[in-house]
Amino acid sequence: MSAETGPATPIAWAEAQRVAFEAGRDAVTGAERVGLAEADGRTLAEPLVTLTDLPAFPTSSIDGYAVRGTPPWRVLGRVLAGAVAPPLPDESGVAMEVATGAMVPDGTEAILRTEESTTTPDGLIEGTPRAEPEWRVPGDEAARGEELFPAGTAVDPGVIGLAAHCGYDELPVRRRPRGAVLVFGDELLTQGVPGGGLVRDALGPALPSWLRRLGATVDTGVVHGPVKDTLEAHVDAIRAALDTADLVCTTGGTMRGPVDHLHPALRELGGDYLINTVAVRPGFPMLVARVPGSDGRDRFLAGLPGNPQSAIVALMSLVAPLLAGLAGRARPELPRVTLGAPIRGRGTDTHLALVRVDRDGMARPMAHVGSSMLRGLAGAAGFAVIPPGESGEPGARVDLVPLPLLNGERR
């Protein structure tokens, strides 16, 4: 819907998440091939299939002797890892010493462990091989052409290691969505201690890091603002940011006060609202709009409220699923937690309540959680989701919107 002049009807929080994800998915970024070392944190643009059988050749699991026929065996030579094994002669009583990981010679009937072998005075080998085979056959782990991971899989060190194991030097991955941040508000101070009617901008320094952890690329030093509180300055700043970014996050101006110019700017830029206010507390005056770029390709603008905690609610509610879609990933499933203390509901709105997760696995509400506060956020593991019309009672199982923390869950 085109940017309108009047107030909008809030949509349900769960519906807003779905809309944001599907909008990103429909505009998924292009693909590129990168070296394995650069692929960490990216998303597979194509399925990862094996380029060869795994293992590619019969491989000894132990140090021992590849034997044929009945003992005693005459040792004909040695095969080390990295060498091509000659076949055993078509006769009984022959053996080849093999190292762990070495190629098993054709004609091998069993492998005798070194520690379970004995040597006769005339240099022959004796012993009893174990009943279970002591080598891996080609395709034991995966057959050539088998799909190991589908497109849309997040690349992590395990995927990188397996890709190298299969023989890949590069991986086809989605281009990282590019993000930019615009800070609105003449009342904001960008350095030093707040005072004299000015408050310190806490979102400009923090949002690029949040966006990077959600999968976007945000260049260092590209936070713009505070943007002057005029319509012309807002339009110019948004237009410039859209020239290089797939997603522009703005802070403040999502209401319709006397110096809130975001909605008029979107109207002037030809923006279409995908989401315009969400039935969630805190942070309800959040939005996502599709805005045409100068090259004709649509970009996205996420309008985050100016209050810091409300802005992070909007970030995790709308920007996180939008970026997942743009990156070609599946919509993340929310984990469940058990409430260890009561959390009140917010009537017909969804309540996103900051919680920590204790070592006993119980989620407990944080203190200092006003929409303008950051102390509670800085110690939280995420937001517990209290659905409309409900109150979170101790022992209740609820969804958790986890914050993208460096070391996983914060406890």
UniProtKB/TrEMBL annotation:
Keyword terms: Magnesium, Metal-binding, Molybdenum, Molybdenum cofactor biosynthesis, Transferase
Enzyme class label: transferase
Domain of life: Bacteria
Reactions mediated catalytically: adenylyl-molybdopterin + molybdate = Mo-molybdopterin + AMP + H(+)
Recorded metabolic or biological pathway in which this protein acts: Cofactor biosynthesis; molybdopterin biosynthesis
Its EC number(s): 2.10.1.1
Occurrences of domain MoaB/Mog (ranges): 180-325
Database matches in PANTHER family: GEPHYRIN, MOLYBDOPTERIN BIOSYNTHESIS PROTEIN
Family as reported in the entry's similarity comment: Belongs to the MoeA family.
Name used for this protein in its record: Molybdopterin molybdenumtransferase
Species: Catenuloplanes atrovinosus
